[in-house]
Amino acid sequence: MNRYRMQFAPQVWKPKMNVPLINWLRPLRSRRQRSEVQVETVDVIGEGIVKDELAKGHGVLIMPNHPSHADPYVIYAAADRVPTPIFIMATWHVFYNQPWHIQWLLQRHGCFSVDREANDIGAFRLATDILRKKKSPLIIFPEGEIYHCNERVTPFREGAAAIAVAAARKAKRPIVCVPAALTYKYIDDPTESIVKTMGDLEQAIFWRRQESQPIEQRIYRFAEVLLAVKELEYFNETRSGRLPDRINALREHILSGVEQRHQLSSKTDSIPERVKVARRTIIQEMEQCDAARRTELDHDLDDLFLVVQSFSYPGDYVDEKPSIERLAETMDKFEEDVLQRPTAEIKGMRRAKVQFAPAIEVVGDRKIKNQTTTLTRRVEEAVQSMLDKASS
Question: What does residue 138 show for φ and ψ, rounded to 5 degrees?
Fold first, then answer.
């Protein structure tokens, strides 16, 4: 998982969509899709759903899962099939420290920034205005992070659904949410690259390369070592039991410790939402504290990053179905988290599939209770259903 700067956004990047430029650059996007993220083809199923909703004049929010760094290329390839330009909400880190021409191109492609650690009212209003008034659909990835889980969604955050509900309450046209499922399959056999990366990881913890052992066994032994190191750090002992249970216990111990230190009471079971509240509190304090206190707060932010990292490891993902894709995705996470590479090395040419499910109309009635939660759950379930069918 990418480690990014823990601070409030230093500036705002707004969309400056240029449709002629988007159309002119379509061949370049296709070439970079193949060369940069090694996606040879993008199959699209159900693009007629989006086309029909746009033809009716509806405000369209597309909510995909977020399994790969290739997702922006793939979702734009799907949009080209509709065809339609798209607006994309992205964390401000996507723009930060990029050359000016990359920022310029992102904005002309309809991308705009959001500060996920703050109550970004500006981005919220911009997104609702797009749904209320613009002809092009809005893309928001409700998982928030790239978790490298191609066949299993990580629980969706409610922010995207909240934007749709807020737009529906003010819009003069229907607002709909379209679930979208992104999946990747290898065309080239990535086994050699997976085995090499596994050896690099073993050497990083001063092991010999365990080349005589099956790769699945090597992955779980390595994961056990990493978890045991963290258990010793936080519990002063290693624990026993199922890997998923131990990961959950460690994560809850770390997160609740941060919350207690900052006198935060949890109002939700959502790990990402609890982390978001804690990060916001810490970043606010860092703006006006002394150096000694800042060091303590930096440690708390490190703890929260570890919580999010652990959230991306279900503990049974490979064991449940040891496919080549799940093995490769687990290696991707280890590369970024242990070897601290900015992004994992892509292990072979792939093909991608984008599936759209029937649109869900958003009701703008304020009297309906828990609409945001219900809508989030319905979209999440629809995406997971498509992922299950794609992997069966």
Answer: -105, 135
Q: What is the pLDDT of residues 73-131, one digit of tens each?
A: 999 999 999 999 999 999 999 999 899 999 999 999 999 999 987 789 999 999 999 99
> From residue 338, how far is each of 200, 221, 233, 341 by CA, in Å?
10, 15, 16, 8
Whole-structure pTM over 0.90, yes or no? yes
Indicate the residue type of 212. Answer: S
Q: What are the two backbone dihedrals, phi and then psi, of residue 350, each rounded to the nearest 5 degrees?
A: -130, 165
The answer to whether 271 and 255 have CB atoms below 8 angstroms apart is: yes
The percent of residues in the chain predicted with pLDDT above 90, rounded, is 80
pLDDT tens-digit map of 41-53:
999 999 999 999 9
